[in-house]
Amino acid sequence: MIRRRLTDAQLPTADLPSRAHAPAVSASRAKRWGSFFYAEQVLRVMRGYGWSVFLYSVGQPVAYLFAMGIGLASLVNANSAAVFGGVSYLTFIAPALLVSSAVMTASGDFSYPIMDGFKWRRVFYGPHASPLVPQQIAAGHIMASTLKFLVQSVVYFAIVAMFGASPSPWGWVSAIVATVAGLSFGLPLMAYASTITKDSGQFALVQRFIVVPLFLFSGTFFPLDSLPLGVRWIGWISPVWHGTQLGRVFTYGLEENPLLTLTHVLFLVGAAAAGWMLTRRQFVRRMGA
Amino acid sequence: MHNEATRSFSTSASFQMNPPAVITAENLTKSYGELIAVDGISFEVPAGESFGLLGPNGAGKSTTMKMIGGVSQRTSGKLSIMGLDPETHGPEVRAHLGVVPQQDNLDEELKVRENLIVYGRYFGLPLSYLRPKADELLEFAQLTDKAKSRVDALSGGMKRRLTIARSLINEPKILLLDEPTTGLDPQARHILWDRLFRLKEQGVTLILTTHYMDEAEQLCDRLIVVDKGRIMAEGSPASLIREYSTREVLELRFGSERNATIGVELAGIGERVETLPDRVLIYADDGESALEQVSARRLRPLTSLVRRSSLEDVFLRLTGRSLVD
């Protein structure tokens, strides 16, 4: 009601479409929808990379599923079906690859582009001069990436389902689990990335010493229990492990203590929320000083 | 009697005609820890004026611009843009502005035209408005045939014009330009100046920082000379020159060895003699006759040049330093 009155009053030239609406209208729209406006920008940029995103999200999982789920599985299945909870090796690793793929995408989306926004090409400072506020720029970036993870995970899941590796009717939920897992790793990384003022190879270190170990030691290719206690903790603090286990619950009905299942959910959501909060604070601090 | 009446009429008329200030700064201060970047400056900019901040690098110009643009919070003082405090009404203030930052921050991965449309979306502007507006602005920025190019394929001058076009997408009444032509070649600068003139003619208030004297003289109705965060002088380019310099300047070069010592021998010619490492400046209302006096003293400069005073001379007078090192 109020909005309508404002628009009518301040747009006396409604018959001339080439006039911008009043600044007050810009401000109120930006306050309400600003995060979406910025997300739109990020998605438009992503569209320019449509093919590589597609290949990454479809090509890579297919390659992994073939190599591990069919090649390696021919050795594994014969030996130890019991170790993998009575399901085929392909079924066992499919949710793990789904989650890992989202986490790896997140490690890209929430590192270098943040540096680019603040430092290299300073893309965050364009919208910063518009009615948007720093926390909306952060939120827009996160929303666009979330959508990308979701699309990628749905495509990945569809392929997994085609391979017959998701026997449960609830399997599709694992695409959402993977998206949240991507955020639970990505948002703390984004918070860290937004504090960096000088690039001295930090992201390459993150890739080598955090992402890769998380991928290898998170119960991805074998159950976490089969690792010695000394390294098992890596799984416990790993979004990949929590996401993978939760994914298994949905794709083939992995039996585990419901409290543990709840822990997975709380861990993933908690890490993502904490990461978002810290990111938001750092964006405001860095751009509002 | 009649005369008196006319005068009072014209006074009150000009009082009424005086447009209200769109920007008011009072004792504006910004410090970063120990460093005081802006040290209590005050100024007012009426609507439609072209207002310049002139000063060397590090004078506090960009910091002032950021505070006006509502992206940097002041340490103390008062600031109002269109009657709003940018600290409490950031989005509202920024919705009034067009901003051309010192460093281009275009979306290099998007096409030229898409840059304008995406930016307009930040203001919540609908595509039905943005599509024709983007074409109109590309025309204005002489980039129509580049509409579908990627930004990284543009030259420096083209990027600058695109940044200006982008800043106009919301039809702002106030345009902030932070060193709009730094790093451009002379031809690109002249094209830009021409575009800015047109905006000025349309009644857009221009606030610009520059360390180019000719730019300030070309574009600014009024300016403040800033050094070390303080205002050294304020006025129109012509009035500043009148106040702080002579009508003409005689530039003499005696070679780097002699420049430093020749000053004494030139004493008394013109109003003032300024010795720089590479040349000697004699400030005089009549440069030619000053040159005759130099010849009469049998001093033979390697080169001599009589020119009109510029803001460069004003700055030199005020700070003892030249603007661009």
Can you describe this structure in just a few lines?
The complex is a heterodimer of chains A (289) and B (325). Chain A is mostly helical.
Which residue ranges of chain B are poorly predicted, with pLDDT under 50 across at least 5 consecutive positions? 1-16
The H-and-E topology of chain A, N to C, reads as HHHHHHHHHHHH
**CA gyration radius of chain B, whole angstroms:** 23 Å
Shape of chain A: elongated
**Gyration radius from CA atoms of chain A, angstroms:** 22 Å
Helix content of chain B: 25-40%
Largest interface: A-B, 38 and 39 residues
- The spatial strand order of the largest sheet of chain B comes to 5-6-7-3-8-9
Sheet-strand content of chain B, in percent, reads: 25-35%
- Kindly report how far apart the N and C termini of chain A lie: 36 Å
Instruction: Assess the beta-strand content of chain A as a share of residues.
Output: under 5%
Shape category of chain B: globular
Number of helices of chain A: 12
Detail the poorly predicted runs of chain A: 1-17
Q: Give the strand tally of chain B.
A: 13
What is the averaged pLDDT score of chain B? Answer: 89
Descriptive report:
The complex is a heterodimer of chains A (about 290) and B (about 325). By secondary structure, chain A is mostly helical. Chain A contains twelve helices and no strands. Chain A has helices at about 1-10, 25-45, 50-80, 90-110, 110-120, 125-130, 135-160, 175-195, 200-215, 230-235, 240-250, 260-289. The two termini of chain A are about 35 Å apart. The model of chain A is unreliable at about 1-15 (pLDDT under 50). Chain B is of the alpha/beta class and about 325 residues long. Chain B is about 40% helix and about 25% strand. In chain B, strand 8 and strand 9 (about 230-235) form a beta hairpin. In chain B, helix 4 (about 110-120) packs across helix 5, helix 4 packs parallel to helix 6 and helix 9 packs across helix 12 (about 310-320). The radius of gyration of chain B is 23 Å and the shape is globular. Mean pLDDT of chain B is about 90; it is low at about 1-15. At the A-B interface, helix 2 and helix 6 of A face helix 3, helix 4 and helix 5 of B.
